[in-house]
Specification:
Largest sheet of chain C: 6 strands, mixed
Helix content of chain C: 25-40%
CATH class of the largest domain in chain C: Alpha Beta
Number of domains of chain C: 2
Strand order of the largest sheet of chain C: 6-7-8-3-9-10
CATH superfamily of the largest domain in chain C: P-loop containing nucleotide triphosphate hydrolases
Distance between the termini of chain C: 50 Å
Structural class of chain A: alpha/beta
Order of helices and strands of chain C: EEEHEEEHHHEHEHEEHHH
Helix content of chain A: 25-40%
Number of strands of chain A: 10
Radius of gyration of chain A: 20 Å
Chains: A alpha/beta, B mainly alpha, C alpha/beta
Shape of chain C: globular
Structural class of chain C: alpha/beta
Distance between the termini of chain A: 24 Å
Strand order of the largest sheet of chain A: 6-7-8-3-9-10
Number of helices of chain A: 11
Shape of chain A: globular
Order of helices and strands of chain A: EEEHEEHEHHHEHEHEEHHHH
Oligomer: heterotrimer
CATH topology of the largest domain in chain C: Rossmann fold
Largest interface: A-C, 41 and 45 residues
Radius of gyration of chain C: 21 Å
Chain lengths: 296, 267, 298
């Protein structure tokens, strides 16, 4: 429990696309502290994207309140809230228009009305963060999908928002690309920024994200430590989700001494090797889920 | 109104399913010829009622037809206000700012409004009772090249998709602080590039993906295509089409003789 | 390393020799000399990093060879395939994007598109539509508007669009990449059914390692245009050069655990598997047999 301003505070949020229409969000309460890294999971149509669009004011509540760093989003224009909450869309091609990489990354900061020197500084920093600094003068569309994804992230990071929402950051990327983006987000989060990641990738959530919120049918089904949430198979099933394979395996071995809330391959290996009598295998929980390490 | 491809709404009516789309196309053409031939409000008004009657026979709801009529009210008002300044005839009614307003002028203005109502409502009813799929096949049988037919269907198919893309792009750019409300019209138009640019690229991407998918399913592998929609002109269709042709010719003849007109001087 | 097998010639439905392809203006080959044989009824998985040439290979097997420099030979169902070849009927291709594969305004119209292009008889097409809808679990959807379908439904429709052409080979290029978990499950279920019925040869590109390991008879790995390894999942995923490192391609998690146990000398190499159920059974046996095992009476 912490005092002070939350990054995002949502109270009794109800949302309908049309007045009198069906409730897409039915009474959501969420509090996200500054500096947290949260995963938002659930099926398409469950309401997770609808919820996330309330964070930067793209959608306004039908009833209830949404406060971002204390500010009520109802009265704030989206263009203003963009300073505080950056939103990276799933498909980078929804943002990129035919320009060079540098100009693309500068679009956001320019819209914020910053001076040219400041814009350049931010663009250079953002491109360096994603590793595209050497391609700054290339045409955005000559980049491959993974690089365009990084460019989209850089364009939003260049606005230096304290809160970042990323929608499906790893869809369509191979392993190397996914890791690249996730490393980037972890680094950004380590700097004290708040990140909300909407994703389907359970394995990545298990490895990298400390807190998970499950959205189903317009409601929050679960909200807590990833370890608890992702190992609750019955709960996930009601949201039409499944835990990562490592967790599924662990649960089938739980009667033989493996913890049912195992999240990663490394944790599973460590426990199994100990149970098979490996010498010295229980001395350290090294390499356990980086984000979700447990104490022995 | 469905957000999908077209305003076609399927109903189990004779007009929807038993009439060939070519017949319906001919009917629309005939209405336009009749609308342009006459300028007496009574004639045009009667034709509007006829179209509404056909719509009801085809089980099209009043609520669906109302917007088309409502849209024409503006033209009706405009017609009654402006045309009497040009068209004179019959008894004088009153004077406004030095101009004499006559009965014929008012009637002509009314007729012009009704003409718009007629053409718009006929087009609406036509669209609501003709399935795009069958229409395309009808046009193909009239000689439209098959590639053009597929292009038509593909264009219709992608309307909702590109509309959704446009909305997503607008949101994504708003999230980068693009503010389309501020600034003079020129500045706002320049800002729209941020939406039109990606939309254009997306449209091209979609088109390329579509072209590849079509090639993968044998498009243009043969000189022509078969179709699961098989159209036949029945006797009823032929009777209707000949009647329409007859009516159109009669309308033009009547016009030449000055029947059904308020004035010969204007269309 | 190649994917050639020593099997009677008429049992091979795809034969690729020294396939080379370079896109115009590209600095290196997209495909750098691929050799591959696929047997009738086989389920071949294809994996590898982005840019490895997987999609290019799919296009070539479908006969949609892009403009560029082409070398080598491809034979699909005993027909040679080369740039400028006539339309290849024996293979069908399902792409990644659910949206751009749907052409018709209704499901029936979309399914009829392919056969209509090939001038099949309209009555036969109409009769075939419900049959293939049943195969992809979309029975009764003939008259549904295509824009109302979910991503998973659209991809299943795309599979039905391919199956109605009655190909000998079905090629799927990352069919679930853009789908949510439900959609992914739906598509894999349909593909798994095809595999079970052994009615058709399948080549599927996928990153979903766990599902691929369950379904594929053999998996080939492409990297930088070359075929760098291939084999049944239980053998392939033991390759330490290609898997089991943070920057490597994803392997099923069960295979990673077992790999590490083998490497640590705690289990014998023949215990290795890439399939979930088998792996769980083996781990259970090992743990129950181990003296240090803790058996909790729950």
């Amino acid at each position: 429990m912490s005092d002070g301003q939350a990054a995002i505070q949502i109270s009794d949020l109800v949302f309908r696309y049309v007045p009198g229409g069906p409730e897409v969000l039915r009474g959501v309460n969420v509090r996200i502290e500054v500096g947290e890294f949260v995963a938002l999971i659930g099926q398409n149509g469950a309401g997770k994207t609808t919820l996330a669009k309330h964070f930067n004011g793209l959608l306004k509540p039908s009833s209830g309140t949404v406060r971002v760093l204390g500010r009520d989003t109802r009265t704030a224009p989206v263009a203003d809230l963009a300073r505080t909450v950056g939103y990276v869309y799933q498909n980078p091609d929804h943002q990129i228009f035919a320009q060079r990489v540098r100009a693309e990354a500068a679009f956001g900061p320019r819209n914020l009305g910053l001076g040219p020197a400041e814009v350049d500084r931010r663009v250079d920093a953002a491109l360096a963060l994603v590793g595209l600094q050497d391609l700054a003068d290339e045409f955005a569309f000559s980049l491959g999908r993974g690089q365009r994804q990084k460019l989209a992230v850089a364009s939003v990071l260049a606005m230096e928002p304290p809160i970042l929402v990323v929608d499906e950051p790893t869809t369509g990327l191979d392993q190397a690309g996914s890791r690249g983006i996730l490393d980037l987000l972890s680094r950004w989060n380590a700097d004290g920024r708040t990140i909300v990641a909407i994703t389907h990738d359970m394995t990545l959530v298990a490895e990298r994200v400390p807190r998970t919120i499950v959205v189903n049918d317009g409601r929050i089904l679960a909200d807590g430590a990833t370890r608890q949430v992702l190992s609750d198979t019955a709960l996930l099933r009601t949201a039409y989700l499944r835990p990562p394979q490592a967790t599924r395996i662990a649960q089938r071995l739980s009667d033989l001494g493996v913890a049912a809330d195992t999240l990663t391959v490394t944790e599973l290996f460590t426990q199994v090797s100990r149970l098979l009598g490996a010498p010295g295998a229980d001395t350290a929980r090294h390499g356990a889920s980086e984000a979700n390490g447990r104490t022995v | 109104m469905p957000v999908g491809y077209s305003i076609y709404v399927d109903r189990p009516s004779y007009v929807h399913h038993q009439l060939d789309p070519r017949t319906k196309l001919a009917a629309l053409g005939a209405i336009f010829v009749l609308a342009l031939s006459f300028n007496h409000p009574a004639v045009l008004g009667a034709l509007v009622l006829l179209v509404l009657l056909v719509g009801r026979l085809a089980q099209v709801g009043w609520r669906s037809m109302a917007p088309f009529l409502a849209g024409s009210v503006w033209f009706l008002v405009l017609g009654i206000v402006i045309w009497p300044l040009y068209v004179q005839g019959g008894p004088d009614l009153f004077t406004v700012a030095g101009q004499t307003i006559t009965l014929n002028g008012l009637l002509f203005g009314l007729a012009m409004g009704l003409r718009v109502a007629l053409m718009v409502t006929a087009a609406g009813v036509w669209m609501m009772t003709t399935s795009p799929q069958k229409l395309t096949v009808g046009l193909l049988q009239l000689g439209l090249p098959y590639k053009a037919g597929v292009a038509m269907t593909a264009a219709i198919r992608f309307v909702p998709l590109l509309n959704a893309e446009r909305a997503t792009i607008a949101e994504a750019q708003q999230a980068r602080a693009l503010d389309l409300r501020r600034g003079n019209p020129f500045a706002r138009a320049m800002k729209s590039v941020a939406i039109i640019g990606p939309l254009f690229i997306r449209a091209i991407d979609v088109a390329q993906g579509l072209a590849l998918a079509m090639d993968a399913r044998g498009f243009a592998a043969r000189d022509s295509r078969t179709s699961i929609v098989e159209l036949h002109l029945t006797r009823t269709d032929r009777v209707i089409m000949y009647s329409l042709l007859g009516a159109s010719i009669l309308a033009v003849v009547l016009r030449l003789f000055g029947i059904g007109l308020i004035t010969r001087n204007y269309l | 390393m190649d994917g050639v097998t020593a099997v009677p010639a008429d049992d091979i439905v795809i034969r690729v020799r020294d396939l080379q392809f370079r896109y115009p203006g590209a600095a290196r080959d997209a495909l750098a000399g691929i050799n591959l044989d696929v047997r009738r009824g086989e389920f071949v998985g294809v994996t590898g990093p982005s840019g490895a040439g997987k999609s290019t290979l799919c296009l070539c097997l479908k006969g949609l060879i892009p403009a560029g420099m082409f070398g080598g030979t491809i034979s699909v169902a005993a027909q040679p395939v080369a740039p400028g070849s006539a339309y290849v009927e024996s293979s069908a291709l399902v792409f990644q994007n659910p949206e751009t594969q749907i052409i018709g305004l209704t499901v029936a119209e979309d399914m009829a598109f392919g056969p209509e292009n090939l001038r099949r008889d309209p009555a036969e097409i109409r009769a075939a539509i419900p049959r293939y809808l049943e195969q992809v679990r979309l029975s009764g959807y003939q008259d549904a508007d295509t824009y109302r379908l979910s991503g998973g439904q659209k991809q299943r429709l795309a599979i039905a669009d391919a199956l109605i052409l009655e190909p000998r080979i079905l090629i799927l290029d990352e069919p679930t990449s853009e789908l949510d978990p439900i959609g992914k499950d739906e598509v894999f279920e349909v593909v798994e059914r095809l595999r079970r019925e052994r009615s058709i040869t399948v080549v599927m590109v996928e990153h979903a390692a766990e599902q691929l390991a369950e379904m594929a008879d053999r998996i080939i790995v492409l990297d930088d245009g070359a075929l760098v390894d291939q084999g049944p999942p239980d053998e392939l995923y033991r390759n330490s050069r290609l898997f089991h490192r943070p920057d490597a391609e994803r392997a099923p998690q069960i295979s990673e655990v077992l790999f590490q146990l083998v490497e640590a000398g705690l289990i014998s190499a023949d215990q290795f598997t890439a399939r979930e159920e088998t792996g769980i059974e083996r781990l259970r046996s090992l743990l129950m047999a181990s003296p240090s095992a803790v058996v909790q009476h729950v």
